[in-house]
Amino acid sequence: MKPGWFAHPVQSGLIAGTWLLLQQSAAVPQLITAAVLGLVLPRLLHGFTGTPVPPKAWGTAVRLFFVVLRDIVVANVTVAKLVLLPWARPEPAWVPVDLDIRDPRAVTLLATIITTTPGTVSCVVDEAAHRILVHALDGSPGVDAIAADIKTRYEAPLKEIFE
């Protein structure tokens, strides 16, 4: 089934906006190019992106965005301290996080959030066992505490957004 021209309006807007930011210009030729790219690229990439499904809780999605943004800034400072301070002794740890979410987009987004936050990496997403194996640069808070933090800060809002 062929997608409509506005099948992914948010993606279209992001592509057009990104083009204008990269060009650092809002001249008429750049506006036309941005509009064409914003309309054509999502249509061409439809087979890869699938059918758009809007989030069920926009307020939660916005709050999650700011939680993740804050966590990335804080984690950057924490990782910098661990790397730069000679007396810092990080304790790397493998953290299994059992998942309550089942939506594959939510699981993918959770793994992306974990990997984007400095000091943690989603290493294995086990769909059959509904678990993500996370490597933490510093596991000194404890494996259970880290898993509980991931579930509370990221998984719970994703569950509300997608399920």
UniProtKB/TrEMBL annotation:
GO terms for molecular function: monoatomic cation transmembrane transporter activity. Its main location: membrane. It is a multi-pass membrane protein. InterPro entries: Cation_antiport_E. It comes from the Bacteria. Keywords: Cell membrane, Membrane, Transmembrane, Transmembrane helix. It is found in: Cell membrane. GO terms for cellular component: plasma membrane. The keyword Protease does not apply. The keyword tRNA processing does not apply. Belongs to the CPA3 antiporters (TC 2.A.63) subunit E family. This is Monovalent cation/H+ antiporter subunit E. It comes from Rubrivivax albus.
